Amino acid sequence: MLDHSSFLMTLGGISIFMLGLNFASENLQKLTANRTRDLMASLSRRPFFGVLVGMLLTLIIQSSGAVTSMLVGLGSAGVFSLQQVMAVILGSTVGTTFTVQLLSLNVAQYGLVIFTFSFSVYFLTKNRTLKLVMAAAMGFGLIFLGLEMIGLGTEALRKVQTFTSFLQQLKENPLLAILATATFTGIVHSSAVTIGFAMSLAASGQITLVDAVYWVYGANIGTTATALLASFGGNYVGRQVAWAHCFYKILSVLFFIPFTEQFVEFVSLGSPQRDVANLHTAFNIGAAAVFYPFTKYGARLIERLFPPGPAEKQFTVKFLERGSYQSASVALAHAEREVLRMADIVLSMVKDSCTILKDESLDLEHDIRLRDDRVDLLNREINLFLVRHMEDGNLVSQQRMMRVIDFSTDLESAADVVDNNILDLARKKHTLKLEFSKDGWTEIQEIHRAVVDVVEMSVSCFQVEDKELAAKIIECKREIRQLERRLREAHIERLVKDRKDSISISSIHLDFLAEFRRIVSIVSNHAYELLKDTDPYHVLPRR
């Protein structure tokens, strides 16, 4: 085989390998989407369970780098703590060994057969689940086909002086081997490609098992590049997760390097491909076992090394992190204080919703979205906190806890209306460079003031549990419904008169009115609950 042909065969094999890996990963994720969400939701349990979750996620996604990148995003969003994420990272490094072990089974020659059979079934079937299974199988077929091409290409490359000289340099300088393979892995975003390449070289006798172990070290360090890149543009928590993954891999390599020869002797069984795969598996399992007891301390160290900047102080609960409470009533009191703090944030979002309608402000839009994330966090923490304490209280305490949970959920829903609906409408208005008519803007301000008043009354009513105030909220809700109808009719009258300033913004104007009324409906829910047993003011609808 000519020099350029052997290089093309090797590069083509790597390309097909990566394509297959990506194809298998995408379709496995589609096939197990619900299971993946369930696994991520279960991370609130023990750290050891996080390790198992990491293993399973990597088996599903077929990429530890992709799992870690996902964790960077979740950590940035404040969904999980750094310690929980570190446990998942340990598990993901173990889970990634499955693909490499599969590659070592000497089934590369069947790659084309697997791909052809899977494609035939995929093409003929109408069943969505079977299609996804066959698509994933096609991906594995491409992986095996790519591995076979890499093997053929590297076999021919042994006759190429440039390539053999480069390999010799890597053999003579283990540090260079680690750096080169780490760089290659970082570029292709897959340690499996690097390990598969090393397996092919070992099978053809171009590198020894001792040489291959440095490829394993480099591949494990290089796979951290995916998460590091994902952390750019995120907040400090995302950076902490990415660097925790990076330091874990580097420390693991530093821990194993002094014992490299003993390590190789321990896993050597005689089959080069299996031995390289076993090196990779033993390295990741051993590193996870060594560092698992220190995840708590590692998290603290990373938090000190990468603290938040002045504008990145982490928002968290203020009244719930007080250890174990003595009674359900004390827990309830703290939860009520937290939900009032949450209500202040929602009220500020509703107030600013009118400002963002009038003038475009990217800073204000970003700030409103940040406040919505904080509301989501508080809602989640309040609900989890009260559920943990609910069984400790009596029936009255449990009912009051449910009242707090319901109000917290309503506040979160109101915040979502601002974040998901009103902001999107405002962006549409500014993108299309539309303006409200003078009368239209006056009407928007009128209903906005009424909505702010109801939200303020709703928060006060929750705090003091005043039935008279609850009745007033329900009356105001009905008045706003009538106001919205009147303003809608006034807008339509302007349309009939063919006023161009009203026609161009018509749908947006009417949608704004509907969203403001929707906020009132949401924050009024608890007022109905307060009056459902007794209705001295006769404001509830009659059956």
Q: Explain this structure to me?
A:
With 543 residues, the protein is mainly α. It has two domains: 3-305, no CATH class; 328-531, Phosphate transport system protein phou homolog 2, domain 2 (Methane Monooxygenase Hydroxylase, Chain G, domain 1). It contains 25 helices and no strands. Helix 4 packs parallel to helix 13 (225-231), helix 18 (328-358) packs antiparallel against helix 19 (362-390) and helix 18 packs antiparallel against helix 21. The longest helix has 37 residues, at 395-431. The relative contact order is 0.07. The mean pLDDT is 81.
Beta strand count: 0
Largest sheet: none
Give the uncertain stretches in residue-range form: none
Assembly of the depicted chains: single chain
Characteristics:
543 residues; Methane Monooxygenase Hydroxylase, Chain G, domain 1; 2 domains; elongated
Short description:
Helices cover 80% and strands 0% of the residues. It has 25 helices and no strands.
